[in-house]
Amino acid sequence: MxxxxxxxxxxxxxxxxxxxxxxxxxxxxxxxVCRGWLQALNEGDxxxxxxxxxxxxxxxxxxxxxxxxxxxxxxxxxxLRSLHAEIATVAGLVAGKGRVRAVHFGGGSxxxxxxxxxxxxxxxxxKSFGFLPSATISVEIEPNxxxxxxxxxxxxxxxxxxxxxxxxxxxxxxKAINREQSFLQTxxxxxxVRSRGVExxxxxxxxxxxxxxxxxxxxxxxxxxxxxxDRIALFGYAHVPWFKKHxxxxxxxxxxxxxxxxxxxxxxARAIVDQGYEAIxxxxxxxxxxxxxxxxxxxxxxxxxQGYTDDCCETLIGLGPSSISQFRQGYAQxxxxxxxxxxxxxxxxxAAVRGIALSNDDRVRGWIIERLMCDxxxxxxxxxxxxxxxxxxxxxxxxxxxxxxxxxxxELDGDRxxxxxxxxxxxxxxxxxxxKHFEAGTARHSAAV
Length: 449
Known about the structure:
Blueprint: H1 2-9, H2 31-39, E1 46-53, E2 55-56, E3 68-69, H3 74-94, E4 99-107, H4 115-128, E5 131-141, H5 148-156, E6 161-167, H6 171-177, H7 183-195, E7 202-207, H8 214-225, E8 231-236, H9 258-273, E9 278-280, E10 284-286, H10 291-298, E11 302-304, E12 307-309, E13 315-319, E14 324-326, E15 330-334, H11 338-346, E16 352-357, H12 360-375, E17 377-379, H13 380-404, E18 411-413, E19 416-418, H14 427-432
Parallel strand pairs: 1-4, 1-13, 2-3, 4-5, 5-6, 6-7, 7-8
Antiparallel strand pairs: 8-10, 9-10, 11-12, 14-15, 15-16, 17-19, 18-19
Helix pairs in contact: 3-4, 3-11, 4-5, 8-9, 12-13
Protein backbone atom coordinates (compact mmCIF):
# COMPACT_ATOMS: atom_id res chain seq x y z
CA MET A 1 0.00 0.00 0.00
CA UNK A 2 2.75 2.44 0.97
CA UNK A 3 4.67 1.87 -2.26
CA UNK A 4 1.52 2.44 -4.32
CA UNK A 5 0.98 5.72 -2.49
CA UNK A 6 4.61 6.74 -3.09
CA UNK A 7 4.19 6.06 -6.79
CA UNK A 8 0.90 7.92 -7.03
CA UNK A 9 1.61 10.86 -4.72
CA UNK A 10 5.33 11.36 -5.21
CA UNK A 11 4.33 14.36 -7.34
CA UNK A 12 5.65 17.89 -7.17
CA UNK A 13 3.41 20.12 -5.06
CA UNK A 14 3.78 23.28 -2.91
CA UNK A 15 5.14 23.13 0.63
CA UNK A 16 2.16 25.16 1.83
CA UNK A 17 3.90 27.62 4.11
CA UNK A 18 1.19 30.03 2.91
CA UNK A 19 -2.06 29.91 0.99
CA UNK A 20 -2.29 31.09 -1.73
CA UNK A 21 1.33 30.17 -2.36
CA UNK A 22 3.97 32.64 -3.58
CA UNK A 23 3.82 31.72 -7.31
CA UNK A 24 0.32 33.24 -7.36
CA UNK A 25 1.41 36.63 -5.99
CA UNK A 26 0.97 39.50 -8.46
CA UNK A 27 2.02 43.17 -8.86
CA UNK A 28 -1.43 44.41 -7.83
CA UNK A 29 -0.27 44.27 -4.22
CA UNK A 30 2.51 46.85 -4.11
CA UNK A 31 4.11 49.35 -1.74
CA UNK A 32 0.95 51.48 -1.63
CA VAL A 33 -1.18 48.51 -0.58
CA CYS A 34 1.42 47.33 1.90
CA ARG A 35 1.59 50.81 3.45
CA GLY A 36 -2.16 50.73 4.04
CA TRP A 37 -1.98 47.29 5.62
CA LEU A 38 0.81 48.38 7.98
CA GLN A 39 -1.11 51.48 9.01
CA ALA A 40 -4.24 49.40 9.64
CA LEU A 41 -2.66 47.44 12.49
CA ASN A 42 -4.53 47.69 15.79
CA GLU A 43 -3.16 48.72 19.18
CA GLY A 44 -3.53 45.27 20.68
CA ASP A 45 -2.08 43.31 17.77
CA UNK A 46 0.82 40.96 18.38
CA UNK A 47 3.32 40.82 15.52
CA UNK A 48 6.28 38.78 14.37
CA UNK A 49 9.32 40.09 12.52
CA UNK A 50 11.46 38.30 9.96
CA UNK A 51 14.86 39.75 8.97
CA UNK A 52 16.50 38.40 5.85
CA UNK A 53 20.30 38.42 5.50
CA UNK A 54 20.86 37.59 1.80
CA UNK A 55 24.59 36.79 1.97
CA UNK A 56 26.79 33.76 2.58
CA UNK A 57 30.56 33.52 2.56
CA UNK A 58 30.23 30.11 0.90
CA UNK A 59 27.36 28.89 -1.27
CA UNK A 60 25.85 25.50 -0.42
CA UNK A 61 24.75 23.81 -3.63
CA UNK A 62 21.62 22.27 -2.10
CA UNK A 63 20.26 25.63 -0.92
CA UNK A 64 17.10 27.10 -2.45
CA UNK A 65 17.12 30.30 -0.38
CA UNK A 66 17.48 33.81 -1.77
CA UNK A 67 21.15 34.50 -1.10
CA UNK A 68 24.43 35.32 -2.79
CA UNK A 69 28.04 34.54 -2.02
CA UNK A 70 30.46 37.28 -1.04
CA UNK A 71 34.06 36.96 0.05
CA UNK A 72 34.16 40.57 1.23
CA UNK A 73 32.22 42.18 4.06
CA UNK A 74 31.71 45.57 2.44
CA UNK A 75 28.52 44.53 0.56
CA UNK A 76 27.09 43.29 3.85
CA UNK A 77 27.91 46.60 5.57
CA UNK A 78 26.18 48.54 2.79
CA UNK A 79 23.19 46.22 2.91
CA LEU A 80 22.81 46.59 6.67
CA ARG A 81 22.50 50.36 6.33
CA SER A 82 19.53 49.78 4.02
CA LEU A 83 18.01 47.21 6.36
CA HIS A 84 18.18 49.74 9.20
CA ALA A 85 16.45 52.26 6.91
CA GLU A 86 13.63 49.81 6.18
CA ILE A 87 13.22 49.07 9.88
CA ALA A 88 12.84 52.80 10.57
CA THR A 89 10.29 53.27 7.76
CA VAL A 90 8.16 50.29 8.75
CA ALA A 91 8.27 51.21 12.43
CA GLY A 92 7.11 54.72 11.55
CA LEU A 93 4.07 53.31 9.72
CA VAL A 94 3.27 50.88 12.53
CA ALA A 95 3.49 53.90 14.86
CA GLY A 96 3.78 51.94 18.06
CA LYS A 97 0.68 49.80 17.42
CA GLY A 98 1.25 46.17 18.22
CA ARG A 99 3.83 44.32 20.25
CA VAL A 100 6.49 41.95 18.98
CA ARG A 101 6.06 38.35 20.10
CA ALA A 102 8.68 36.71 17.86
CA VAL A 103 11.71 37.65 15.76
CA HIS A 104 13.39 35.34 13.25
CA PHE A 105 16.77 36.05 11.64
CA GLY A 106 17.09 34.06 8.40
CA GLY A 107 19.15 33.96 5.28
CA GLY A 108 21.51 33.41 3.73
CA SER A 109 23.68 33.29 6.81
CA UNK A 110 22.72 35.73 9.58
CA UNK A 111 25.69 34.56 11.62
CA UNK A 112 28.19 35.85 9.06
CA UNK A 113 27.42 39.31 10.49
CA UNK A 114 30.12 40.83 12.63
CA UNK A 115 29.25 40.72 16.34
CA UNK A 116 28.82 44.48 16.58
CA UNK A 117 26.44 44.43 13.61
CA UNK A 118 24.32 41.70 15.22
CA UNK A 119 24.04 43.76 18.39
CA UNK A 120 23.22 46.92 16.42
CA UNK A 121 20.37 45.16 14.64
CA UNK A 122 18.97 43.81 17.90
CA UNK A 123 19.17 47.27 19.47
CA UNK A 124 17.48 48.93 16.46
CA UNK A 125 14.56 46.48 16.60
CA UNK A 126 13.93 47.06 20.31
CA LYS A 127 14.12 50.83 19.88
CA SER A 128 11.77 50.76 16.89
CA PHE A 129 9.11 48.31 18.09
CA GLY A 130 7.53 47.46 21.41
CA PHE A 131 8.54 43.97 22.54
CA LEU A 132 6.58 41.66 24.78
CA PRO A 133 8.65 40.48 27.77
CA SER A 134 8.29 36.88 26.58
CA ALA A 135 9.30 37.61 22.97
CA THR A 136 11.32 34.84 21.33
CA ILE A 137 14.38 35.48 19.16
CA SER A 138 15.36 32.68 16.77
CA VAL A 139 18.47 32.73 14.59
CA GLU A 140 19.57 30.45 11.76
CA ILE A 141 23.17 29.50 12.54
CA GLU A 142 25.84 28.41 10.09
CA PRO A 143 28.35 26.59 12.33
CA ASN A 144 31.25 27.47 10.00
CA UNK A 145 30.70 31.15 10.84
CA UNK A 146 30.59 30.87 14.61
CA UNK A 147 33.20 31.99 17.12
CA UNK A 148 32.99 33.08 20.77
CA UNK A 149 32.46 36.75 19.89
CA UNK A 150 29.45 35.90 17.73
CA UNK A 151 28.05 33.59 20.39
CA UNK A 152 28.35 36.43 22.89
CA UNK A 153 26.59 38.78 20.47
CA UNK A 154 23.74 36.33 19.97
CA UNK A 155 23.33 36.09 23.73
CA UNK A 156 23.33 39.90 23.96
CA UNK A 157 20.45 40.27 21.49
CA UNK A 158 18.45 37.80 23.55
CA UNK A 159 18.48 34.78 21.26
CA UNK A 160 16.15 32.13 22.67
CA UNK A 161 16.35 29.53 19.90
CA UNK A 162 19.26 28.79 17.56
CA UNK A 163 18.57 26.66 14.49
CA UNK A 164 21.62 24.81 13.20
CA UNK A 165 21.76 23.38 9.72
CA UNK A 166 23.27 19.89 9.88
CA UNK A 167 21.97 18.30 6.65
CA UNK A 168 24.17 15.13 6.82
CA UNK A 169 27.42 14.31 8.60
CA UNK A 170 28.67 11.96 5.88
CA UNK A 171 31.79 13.53 4.24
CA UNK A 172 30.83 12.23 0.79
CA UNK A 173 27.42 13.85 1.01
CA UNK A 174 28.88 17.06 2.39
CA LYS A 175 31.35 17.30 -0.47
CA ALA A 176 28.56 16.80 -3.00
CA ILE A 177 26.57 19.73 -1.55
CA ASN A 178 29.61 21.97 -0.85
CA ARG A 179 28.87 22.08 2.88
CA GLU A 180 31.63 20.60 5.03
CA GLN A 181 30.79 20.59 8.71
CA SER A 182 32.01 18.05 11.25
CA PHE A 183 30.02 16.62 14.13
CA LEU A 184 32.51 18.06 16.63
CA GLN A 185 32.15 21.51 15.07
CA THR A 186 28.37 21.28 15.39
CA UNK A 187 28.62 20.04 18.97
CA UNK A 188 30.87 22.95 19.89
CA UNK A 189 28.22 25.42 18.71
CA UNK A 190 25.43 23.60 20.58
CA UNK A 191 27.55 23.55 23.73
CA UNK A 192 28.41 27.22 23.19
CA VAL A 193 24.84 28.46 22.99
CA ARG A 194 23.76 26.33 25.93
CA SER A 195 26.59 27.62 28.08
CA ARG A 196 25.20 31.11 27.43
CA GLY A 197 21.75 30.22 28.76
CA VAL A 198 19.91 29.19 25.61
CA GLU A 199 17.67 26.25 26.43
CA UNK A 200 15.93 25.45 23.12
CA UNK A 201 18.09 24.18 20.23
CA UNK A 202 16.81 23.13 16.80
CA UNK A 203 18.71 20.98 14.30
CA UNK A 204 17.84 20.82 10.60
CA UNK A 205 18.41 17.46 8.89
CA UNK A 206 17.86 16.57 5.24
CA UNK A 207 17.07 13.39 3.35
CA UNK A 208 17.16 12.90 -0.42
CA UNK A 209 20.57 14.53 -0.80
CA UNK A 210 23.15 13.38 -3.37
CA UNK A 211 24.90 10.15 -2.35
CA UNK A 212 22.67 9.79 0.72
CA UNK A 213 21.74 6.26 1.72
CA UNK A 214 19.63 4.85 4.48
CA UNK A 215 22.86 4.01 6.30
CA UNK A 216 24.21 7.57 6.11
CA UNK A 217 20.87 9.03 7.16
CA UNK A 218 20.67 6.62 10.09
CA UNK A 219 24.21 7.52 11.18
CA UNK A 220 23.53 11.25 10.95
CA UNK A 221 20.32 10.98 12.97
CA UNK A 222 22.09 8.91 15.64
CA UNK A 223 24.85 11.50 15.97
CA UNK A 224 22.39 14.39 16.01
CA UNK A 225 20.37 12.77 18.80
CA UNK A 226 23.44 12.62 21.04
CA UNK A 227 23.30 16.44 21.10
CA UNK A 228 19.81 16.20 22.64
CA UNK A 229 18.23 18.95 20.54
CA ASP A 230 14.88 20.25 21.73
CA ARG A 231 13.55 20.25 18.17
CA ILE A 232 14.47 18.54 14.93
CA ALA A 233 13.31 19.49 11.44
CA LEU A 234 13.59 16.69 8.89
CA PHE A 235 13.25 18.13 5.40
CA GLY A 236 13.33 16.49 2.02
CA TYR A 237 15.93 18.05 -0.27
CA ALA A 238 14.14 20.23 -2.82
CA HIS A 239 15.94 19.84 -6.15
CA VAL A 240 14.82 22.88 -8.16
CA PRO A 241 17.68 23.70 -10.58
CA TRP A 242 15.31 25.66 -12.83
CA PHE A 243 14.84 28.03 -9.88
CA LYS A 244 18.30 27.92 -8.29
CA LYS A 245 21.01 27.57 -10.94
CA HIS A 246 23.76 26.59 -8.48
CA UNK A 247 21.89 23.32 -7.92
CA UNK A 248 23.08 22.30 -11.39
CA UNK A 249 26.38 21.57 -9.61
CA UNK A 250 24.61 18.49 -8.25
CA UNK A 251 24.51 15.61 -10.71
CA UNK A 252 20.95 14.26 -10.75
CA UNK A 253 22.37 10.75 -11.11
CA UNK A 254 23.59 11.11 -7.51
CA UNK A 255 20.07 11.69 -6.16
CA UNK A 256 17.99 8.92 -4.59
CA UNK A 257 14.72 8.08 -6.32
CA UNK A 258 11.22 8.58 -4.82
CA UNK A 259 11.08 5.17 -3.12
CA UNK A 260 14.52 5.61 -1.56
CA UNK A 261 13.69 9.18 -0.45
CA UNK A 262 10.56 7.86 1.23
CA UNK A 263 12.50 5.06 2.93
CA UNK A 264 15.09 7.53 4.21
CA UNK A 265 12.41 9.84 5.61
CA UNK A 266 10.57 7.03 7.40
CA UNK A 267 13.78 5.53 8.80
CA UNK A 268 14.86 8.89 10.22
CA ALA A 269 11.42 9.67 11.63
CA ARG A 270 11.20 6.31 13.44
CA ALA A 271 14.66 6.75 14.95
CA ILE A 272 13.76 10.20 16.28
CA VAL A 273 10.40 9.14 17.71
CA ASP A 274 12.01 6.09 19.31
CA GLN A 275 14.11 8.49 21.39
CA GLY A 276 11.03 10.08 22.92
CA TYR A 277 10.41 12.96 20.52
CA GLU A 278 6.87 13.77 19.44
CA ALA A 279 6.14 14.01 15.71
CA ILE A 280 4.91 17.49 14.81
CA UNK A 281 3.07 17.83 11.53
CA UNK A 282 4.78 16.54 8.41
CA UNK A 283 8.47 16.93 9.22
CA UNK A 284 9.17 18.36 12.68
CA UNK A 285 9.87 16.67 16.00
CA UNK A 286 10.06 18.06 19.52
CA UNK A 287 10.64 16.96 23.07
CA UNK A 288 7.31 16.55 24.91
CA UNK A 289 7.86 19.66 27.04
CA UNK A 290 8.84 21.92 24.13
CA UNK A 291 6.46 24.74 23.16
CA UNK A 292 6.01 23.23 19.69
CA UNK A 293 4.85 19.90 21.14
CA UNK A 294 2.53 21.67 23.58
CA UNK A 295 0.98 23.66 20.72
CA UNK A 296 0.51 20.50 18.64
CA UNK A 297 -1.29 18.74 21.48
CA UNK A 298 -3.47 21.80 22.14
CA UNK A 299 -4.45 22.18 18.47
CA UNK A 300 -2.81 25.63 18.27
CA UNK A 301 0.07 24.70 15.96
CA UNK A 302 0.56 27.02 12.99
CA UNK A 303 2.58 27.04 9.79
CA UNK A 304 4.31 30.01 8.18
CA UNK A 305 7.34 30.74 6.04
CA GLN A 306 9.67 29.43 8.76
CA GLY A 307 7.78 26.12 8.92
CA TYR A 308 5.84 24.79 11.91
CA THR A 309 5.54 27.24 14.77
CA ASP A 310 3.71 27.96 17.99
CA ASP A 311 3.66 31.64 16.91
CA CYS A 312 -0.01 32.64 16.80
CA CYS A 313 0.52 36.18 15.46
CA GLU A 314 -1.77 37.14 12.61
CA THR A 315 0.79 39.66 11.35
CA LEU A 316 4.31 38.79 10.25
CA ILE A 317 6.41 41.66 8.87
CA GLY A 318 9.22 40.64 6.53
CA LEU A 319 12.27 42.88 6.28
CA GLY A 320 14.94 42.59 3.58
CA PRO A 321 14.88 41.61 -0.11
CA SER A 322 12.49 38.78 -1.12
CA SER A 323 11.01 38.59 2.39
CA ILE A 324 7.26 38.04 2.66
CA SER A 325 4.89 39.78 5.04
CA GLN A 326 1.59 38.32 6.17
CA PHE A 327 -1.33 40.52 7.19
CA ARG A 328 -4.97 39.74 7.93
CA GLN A 329 -5.69 41.30 4.51
CA GLY A 330 -3.17 39.23 2.53
CA TYR A 331 0.50 38.73 1.65
CA ALA A 332 3.12 41.19 0.38
CA GLN A 333 6.60 40.31 -0.87
CA UNK A 334 9.63 42.57 -1.18
CA UNK A 335 11.58 42.81 -4.42
CA UNK A 336 14.31 40.11 -4.66
CA UNK A 337 17.07 42.30 -6.14
CA UNK A 338 19.33 43.56 -3.36
CA UNK A 339 20.42 46.59 -5.38
CA UNK A 340 16.84 47.60 -6.21
CA UNK A 341 15.84 47.00 -2.61
CA UNK A 342 18.58 49.31 -1.38
CA UNK A 343 17.64 52.11 -3.78
CA UNK A 344 14.00 51.88 -2.67
CA UNK A 345 14.38 51.71 1.09
CA UNK A 346 17.28 54.18 1.25
CA UNK A 347 14.84 56.80 -0.06
CA UNK A 348 12.30 55.93 2.64
CA UNK A 349 10.14 53.71 0.46
CA UNK A 350 8.65 50.27 1.01
CA ALA A 351 10.11 47.40 -1.02
CA ALA A 352 6.86 45.44 -1.58
CA VAL A 353 6.30 44.73 -5.27
CA ARG A 354 3.94 41.74 -5.35
CA GLY A 355 1.49 39.85 -3.20
CA ILE A 356 -2.13 38.83 -3.01
CA ALA A 357 -5.22 40.05 -1.16
CA LEU A 358 -7.20 37.24 0.42
CA SER A 359 -10.70 36.45 -0.77
CA ASN A 360 -13.22 34.71 1.49
CA ASP A 361 -12.63 31.53 -0.50
CA ASP A 362 -8.86 31.84 0.06
CA ARG A 363 -9.40 32.12 3.82
CA VAL A 364 -11.50 28.96 3.95
CA ARG A 365 -9.11 26.93 1.83
CA GLY A 366 -6.11 28.34 3.69
CA TRP A 367 -7.60 27.30 7.03
CA ILE A 368 -8.29 23.76 5.78
CA ILE A 369 -4.80 23.43 4.32
CA GLU A 370 -3.13 24.70 7.50
CA ARG A 371 -5.13 22.35 9.70
CA LEU A 372 -4.31 19.41 7.42
CA MET A 373 -0.62 20.31 7.45
CA CYS A 374 -0.58 20.82 11.24
CA ASP A 375 -3.17 18.37 12.63
CA UNK A 376 -3.84 15.96 9.73
CA UNK A 377 -7.49 16.74 10.43
CA UNK A 378 -10.11 19.46 10.60
CA UNK A 379 -13.55 19.76 12.13
CA UNK A 380 -16.63 20.06 9.93
CA UNK A 381 -18.38 22.00 12.70
CA UNK A 382 -15.49 24.46 12.99
CA UNK A 383 -15.39 24.85 9.22
CA UNK A 384 -19.05 25.89 8.99
CA UNK A 385 -19.08 27.96 12.19
CA UNK A 386 -16.02 29.93 11.11
CA UNK A 387 -16.86 30.47 7.46
CA UNK A 388 -20.60 30.00 7.02
CA UNK A 389 -21.78 29.46 3.45
CA UNK A 390 -18.21 29.46 2.09
CA UNK A 391 -17.32 26.74 4.60
CA UNK A 392 -20.41 24.76 3.63
CA UNK A 393 -19.25 24.62 -0.01
CA UNK A 394 -15.86 23.20 1.02
CA UNK A 395 -17.63 20.77 3.35
CA UNK A 396 -19.24 19.18 0.31
CA UNK A 397 -15.88 18.74 -1.41
CA UNK A 398 -14.39 17.23 1.77
CA UNK A 399 -17.30 14.82 2.11
CA UNK A 400 -16.87 13.70 -1.49
CA UNK A 401 -13.19 12.95 -0.89
CA UNK A 402 -13.92 11.03 2.29
CA UNK A 403 -16.78 8.98 0.85
CA UNK A 404 -15.72 8.29 -2.72
CA UNK A 405 -11.91 8.32 -3.01
CA UNK A 406 -10.76 4.66 -3.01
CA UNK A 407 -7.26 5.65 -1.82
CA UNK A 408 -8.68 6.91 1.51
CA UNK A 409 -6.85 10.22 1.59
CA UNK A 410 -9.49 11.52 4.01
CA GLU A 411 -11.76 9.64 6.39
CA LEU A 412 -14.78 10.94 8.26
CA ASP A 413 -14.53 10.32 12.01
CA GLY A 414 -17.51 11.85 13.78
CA ASP A 415 -17.49 15.52 12.77
CA ARG A 416 -13.81 15.43 11.81
CA UNK A 417 -12.12 14.81 8.49
CA UNK A 418 -8.94 12.88 9.27
CA UNK A 419 -5.94 11.89 7.17
CA UNK A 420 -5.29 8.20 8.00
CA UNK A 421 -1.86 7.33 9.32
CA UNK A 422 -0.63 5.62 6.15
CA UNK A 423 -1.46 8.71 4.06
CA UNK A 424 0.09 11.34 6.34
CA UNK A 425 3.50 11.42 4.60
CA UNK A 426 1.60 12.60 1.51
CA UNK A 427 -0.35 15.37 3.22
CA UNK A 428 1.06 18.00 0.83
CA UNK A 429 -0.62 16.17 -2.05
CA UNK A 430 -3.84 15.99 -0.04
CA UNK A 431 -3.66 19.72 0.69
CA UNK A 432 -3.23 20.35 -3.02
CA UNK A 433 -6.72 18.90 -3.55
CA UNK A 434 -8.08 22.01 -1.79
CA UNK A 435 -5.81 24.45 -3.66
CA LYS A 436 -7.94 26.07 -6.36
CA HIS A 437 -4.87 27.83 -7.81
CA PHE A 438 -2.74 24.69 -8.15
CA GLU A 439 -4.34 23.06 -11.17
CA ALA A 440 -4.39 26.29 -13.18
CA GLY A 441 -0.89 27.35 -12.14
CA THR A 442 2.27 26.97 -14.18
CA ALA A 443 4.78 27.06 -11.31
CA ARG A 444 7.12 24.11 -10.79
CA HIS A 445 7.45 22.66 -7.29
CA SER A 446 9.59 20.22 -5.32
CA ALA A 447 8.72 16.57 -4.66
CA ALA A 448 5.96 15.94 -2.15
CA VAL A 449 7.99 13.24 -0.32
